[in-house]
Write a structure and sequence with these properties.
Shape: globular
CATH topology of the largest domain: D-Maltodextrin-Binding Protein, domain 2
Number of strands: 11
CATH class of the largest domain: Alpha Beta
Number of helices: 7
Largest sheet: 4 strands, antiparallel
């Protein structure tokens, strides 16, 4: 998708674009770089101090399931032999809406106050912990659920739709946001359907306040 986006930007006369994405360095390193070209983060990351140099400019249009453009949701999932009375909850990241806030909300709604929590580092690793019996329940981004190993696991429920994880750029990026959004959107329209995405919609930081407020209510972000 990046190769296609880069090609479309080149056709628009925009040069000096990175050839490949970097998946190796810690994301916090890129967040500190005001000339960041492109990345993606959780909506909650936008309200951490480390995100002061980045700007959300677009969100994916998910076509894999029935949800409004720019929205997504999570599945609450468990292994068949899970202990749902006093479950061990596995989250992907403390500051994750899809993998943390949503499961906290589900536990509260279902009156489950006695549980333990550990952090896996990713949705894939959370699923592995469930499959291997090291955890009982997790919240998994519904799009990730389609692409990861879910053997032996079941969906208990789904969360309410929320603003999808934004694409971000540095506040001093050399590429205008509207040009990057147009190229990225066209790339997804051409080739994204096999991934379950069909374009992008413009977004701003304010559109993610609802998930930030929810996270603050549940002790995940500072109020």
């Amino acid at each position: 998708m990046w190769r296609e986006t880069r090609s479309l930007l080149g056709a628009r006369g925009i040069g000096q674009i990175p050839v490949a994405l970097n998946h190796e360095a810690p994301y916090t390193e890129f967040f500190s770089y005001p000339q960041l070209v492109l990345s993606q983060c959780c909506g909650l990351d936008l309200f951490q101090p480390l995100a002061s140099n980045v700007v959300p400019f677009a969100a994916p249009v998910i076509t894999a399931f029935d949800v409004s453009p720019g929205k997504y949701f999570s599945h609450i999932v468990a292994r068949s032999s899970a202990n749902l009375h006093t479950p061990h909850v596995i989250i992907n990241n403390r500051f994750s809406h899809s993998g943390h806030t949503t499961v906290k909300i589900w536990l509260e709604v279902h009156g489950k106050s006695h549980y333990t929590v550990s952090e896996s580092g990713s949705h894939a690793q959370s699923l592995a912990a469930l499959r291997e019996g090291r955890a009982d329940i997790a919240a998994i981004d519904a799009l990730s659920w389609l692409h990861l190993d879910t053997t032996g696991l079941e969906i208990l429920d789904s969360s309410e739709p929320a603003p999808a994880p934004p694409f971000i750029m540095g506040k001093h990026s050399i590429i205008p946001a509207e040009e990057l959004a147009a190229a990225l959107g066209e790339a997804f329209e051409r080739h994204g359907h096999q991934l379950g995405m069909g374009g992008v919609v413009p977004v701003s930081r304010g559109q993610y306040l609802e998930i930030a407020n929810s996270a603050a209510t549940h002790g995940i972000l500072g109020g």
